[in-house]
Design brief:
The protein is mainly α. It has a domain at about 105-154. It has 6 helices and 2 strands, in the order ββαααααα. It has helices spanning about 45-70, 75-85, 90-105, 110-120, 125-135, 145-150; strands at about 15-20, 35-40. A two-stranded antiparallel sheet has the order 1-2. The longest helix is centred in the middle third of the chain and has 26 residues, at about 45-70.
């Protein structure tokens, strides 16, 4: 059963919160919150809450993509990453991890095109550094030659 509570003080609209809890009775209290978002001291708290909910949902797609990779289901991973990117097309992190997935799946050319736009962002050099660091623990499994292509972002 949904419960909505509204209220405020003399200042009017200033804050908003969205909490969604599990309908399951067996879920421990500390993990029953499926969504727990809050906006304080904002001139448009509802708009900001809406934006945060979209971010939350986009990262759910990213997490689902990560799980699909763990199960070696690259088509599902790419579908989930693409869904996240559709929600936030300018999010560099989402682009980056999509590119890493493509590279690991053998599509270095497409991954490199995506990385080219990531490298043009404000933190482009940081993304290059992260890409290099992913090879040692095996999160990026490409040849040295392909790594150099990815780092150039052709």
């Amino acid at each position: 059963m949904a419960q909505f509570v509204a209220g405020g003080d003399i200042r009017g609209k200033q804050s908003a919160a969205l909490i969604v809890v599990s309908a399951e009775k067996d879920v421990p209290e500390w993990s029953d919150k499926l969504i727990n978002l809050r906006v304080d001291d904002n001139p448009s708290p509802i708009d900001e809450l809406d934006r945060l909910l979209k971010v939350h949902r986009a990262y759910e797609h990213m997490n689902n993509g990560d799980l699909a990779i763990e199960h070696n289901d690259m088509p599902k991973a790419l579908k989930e990453y693409n869904a996240a990117q559709q929600m936030f097309p300018n999010n560099q992190e989402m682009k980056f991890w999509t590119a890493v997935t493509l590279a690991n799946n053998g599509d270095v050319k497409e991954a490199s095109k995506i990385l080219k736009s990531v490298y043009k962002s404000e933190n482009g050099e940081n993304w290059k550094e992260l890409l290099k660091r992913l090879t040692k623990p095996g999160f990026l499994t490409v040849s040295e030659e392909d790594l150099q292509i990815l780092l150039k972002g052709k």
